[in-house]
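User: Teach me something about this protein's shape.
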Amino acid sequence: MLKSEDSTMVDVINLKTQAADKDAQQYPGSVFPAYHMNHQTWISVVLDESMSDDAVMKLVRQSFELTA
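Assistant: First, the predicted structure itself:
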């Protein structure tokens, strides 16, 4: 993530993934390499209105399956 002068607080969730690059490309501006995690296998998803609930839940289910 790029740091800017904007101090707006956002909710973020870290999720395990198999293809962090693919997820970031599929959801630009909403998915980033996970902060303080392995950037190749974890992503940070911004929880705002830019992604549908279904898309977020799909990533949550995938993460659960990878960590179960």
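Now, about its shape. The chain has a mean pLDDT of 87. The longest strand covers residues 12-16. If you'd like, I can walk through any region in more detail.
User: That's plenty for now, thanks!
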